[in-house]
Amino acid sequence: MIATRILVLATALLAAAAPVHAQISDGVIKIGIMNDQSGTYSDITGPGSTLAARLAVEDFGAAKKGMKVEIVVADHQNKPDVGSGIARQWFDAEKVDVIVDVPTSSVALAINQITRDKGKAFLVSGAAASDLTGKACSPNTIHWTYDTWALANGTGSAVVKTGGDTWFFLTADYAFGHALERDTEAVVLKSGGKVVGKVRHPFPTADFSSFLLQAQASKAKIIGLANAGADTINAIKQGADFGIVRGGQQFAGLLVFISDVHALSLERAQGLVLTEAFYWDLNDRTRAWSKRFGGQHHGAMPTMVQAGVYSAVLHYLKAVEALKSDDGTKVIAKMKEMPTDDPLFGKGTVRADGRKLHPMYLFEVKKPAESKGPWDYYKVRATIPAEQAFRPVDQGDCPLVKK
Amino acid sequence: MTIFGIPAQALFGQLLIGLINGAFYAMLSLGLSVIFGLLNIINFAHGAQYMMGAFVAYFALQWAGLGYWPSLLIAPVVVGLFGVVLERTMLKRLYHLDHLYGLLLTFGVALVVQGLFRNEFGSSGLPYAAPSQLSGGYNLGFMFLPTYRGWVVVFSLVVCLGTWYVIERTKLGAYLRAATENPTLVQAFGINVPRMITLTYGFGVGLAALAGVLAAPIYQVNPLMGADLIIVVFAVVVIGGLGSIMGSIVTGFGLGVVEGFTKVFYPEASNTVIFVIMALVLLVRPSGLFGRTT
């Protein structure tokens, strides 16, 4: 049947839809924002990251300083092949100097290698895998906002300390999920806990009921969610339907963003303990910036990834200005040399392995009664100082720091 | 008792969950089959229309205070009307052309609709609660069954079998089937064939919207909910055989169960197993399990 044949072909094409993007370059400082503009992670990164980068260029005052800065945007659809294709085109044909954001660790790891080969610069805010400053570390990459080690260290140890000593992992089946599971498992074991089981689910997954039943049957006290975005939201929401929490088990959202909490509503998210690098309501400077951001973004407050894009782009431009060059390798070296300072993360540094250091926060999601309105969601449970928040530099197996 | 190293109780649970997912596959592939069988249009906008159904339920609650039960009626009607307008203004111009044109048009419509919703509502989705009568659940001994999910299986079975009955066993269904075979002749008997076709499309679209309302309390009301599902549903349709009503119902439920078991034995493959089956079925029976060879 012809119709069947067409349908099969169209289904296959749809499953591998081609990237839509492309802008023209004319040299100068060209910043490429690459992330998920339309899928599972687009609320976490997406157009909000583009806006954050624009605000950074504005605040840096590039125009006044006579520097010409251009921002281009692409959607990598969370697919490493699509992302690599765009990165090559950007570097080779469109003279992009730096790629920023890139959630989805599998894509980020691919671009990490390409950037290194081409001698350009790569500022990761969206992706989480701690491998980016570990085995895969590169003189052309800075991992800006957070990583799986920091998440595991924050949330994992806090949960074990409050009695959650048996774990079952629901893990997104790709580089990020594996890294988050690995780093959390290490923390759980080190703190005296036990991992009784794990299941790797396809990314993305809409229906978690099957996996939740397996988690329920494991009798683990804690169900660790080593996934993100819509996957985390669906797992928590459906977990409530299946009586997970009523049955005495607890969820540990290992990577939960404020946009996830907003989508879940406080009703369902209350009591979750989570680790983030940024919250809009930390101090006057974060509040002021976030209001400005929200005003141009449907009123939504920035996620830590979007805040990280702002901070990274700002520091990048400062380094380019100081260096008077946009050579990728040199700029990254300069960025490591200069201390960082911006309204969102305060003062910080960039380590030799490419790890940006700043405090991380252990938050607890408020009860509906405690919240004064939309986006008033977190209370700070603990501040993890910068030197304790990230993996010690000698434990990552990064060739750049080995003598 | 254990089967393949998995406790039998766990398997019963997975069987039931497979049926729940299968209920959505069945309802969506049924709508596609009705539309293809009678209009010869491959309706790629089906996923978007499913999503619109969920959003109509959400709007009804937010703006008019109308809860889940009225939405079960309102959403199919509203989205069905959207389908009728789409058919009257665009699709009807394509009937005499190759399948490919209808497919491209509906795919384009789906992209536009999904893009508009995503732009407005983001990708994380909006919460929609199950009605209070269906909240809570039963402890079946081998698993905790949320009442709402039980309801979804029963309700969609009734809708599927009802649709099958109307098309295969009633006079109206006979007209419809006759009109696809030979529209000129049926028109000569005084039956308004174009209107019947329009209403059929509206009905198929309404089925998608109904599935959307059913899905709203289980998943988030999410602009991308249809885009994720539609590819699987098309594979289900291909396996069942394009245009076969009973085929799409049986295949929908069956593949839901197969997928459910895959999630236990080899979870990593659970999003590809249906496509593997599709490839195998096409090798052995190119017109699908229940398809007529024409």
What topology emerges from the helices and strands here?
The complex is a heterodimer of chains A (403) and B (294).
Chain A: H1 2-15, E1 29-35, H2 46-60, E2 69-75, H3 80-92, E3 98-101, H4 105-118, E4 121-124, E5 141-143, H5 148-161, E6 166-172, H6 175-190, E7 194-201, H7 209-217, E8 222-226, H8 230-241, E9 250-253, H9 258-269, E10 273-276, H10 284-295, H11 304-323, H12 328-337, E11 340-342, E12 346-350, E13 356-357, E14 360-365, E15 378-384, H13 386-389
Helix pairs in contact in A: 2-11, 3-4, 5-6, 8-9, 11-12
Chain B: E1 2-3, E2 6-7, H1 8-39, H2 46-64, H3 68-89, H4 99-121, E3 137-139, E4 144-146, H5 147-169, H6 171-181, H7 183-188, H8 193-215, H9 225-240, H10 245-265, H11 273-284
Antiparallel strand pairs in B: 1-2, 3-4
Helix pairs in contact in B: 1-5, 1-8, 1-9, 1-10, 2-3, 2-4, 2-8, 2-9, 3-8, 5-6, 9-10, 9-11
